[in-house]
Amino acid sequence: MQSYAKNLIYEHNLTDFDVFIACFPIFYTTFAEKSVEIKKNTYNYMIEIIEKYFPNLTEEQKKQFEALDALYRDWNSKINVISRKDIDNLYEHHVLHSLAIAKAIHFRPGTEILDFGCGGGFPGIPLAILFPECKFKLIDGTGKKIRVCNEVATAINLQNLKAEHLRGEDEKGKYDFVVSRAVMQLPDLMKIIKKNFKQKGRNALPNGLLCLKGGNLKEELKQYFKISEITPLSTFFDEEWFSQDKQLVYVPA
Hints:
Layout: H1 2-12, H2 16-51, H3 59-76, H4 90-104, E1 112-116, H5 124-130, E2 135-140, H6 143-155, E3 161-165, E4 177-181, H7 186-193, E5 208-214, E6 229-232, E7 246-252
Parallel strand pairs: 1-2, 1-4, 2-3, 4-5
Antiparallel strand pairs: 5-7, 6-7
Helix pairs in contact: 2-3, 4-5
């Protein structure tokens, strides 16, 4: 490209502006081709990072996971659902992170799950895609984030999920499991959700809380030390991001 521009200058005595006008179609075409290539690579990565760990997805599930990128980018341009610096890491830092729960337990059909403090839909939406025969309720105290959850669910035809603008203290339903992503200190969370567990379970793992947490949890979990289970996410996933003190905490009801 540079030699082509130089030849134009020397052979035709053109100004830099003339060269820019002459070369613009070439620049634009090259940029467009690169953009398509980047988009294609991103698309392939979306598919590969999920299928790498969940190889038995149906075509419908693949389409639903694929659709999340455009949907969350669109909503993120209107509402700060995900850190704008992190939106390019949607599939690793948010979707796959949410699906770590599915590596610890395969929810049986009919299982009812509450996503407490769901934010923009994590971990609830990825889990609802993966477990279409389970029922998910997402709650959050921020109405605009609940709107995003419902709009995303509608857009991908996710029929086993509903999201409601509701404080956790006001949720009266009974569930097999509560899931969460570091919404608050675990002792405070357990005080709120202890009323929401069904007594009888249907899964291999007894009913309880499955919470994605980070950092040193020794002090936070000291009163649950004997009954809780802590699993580093690097046990499930080999991407470097998951080796950075990211854990799944299980506390039975």
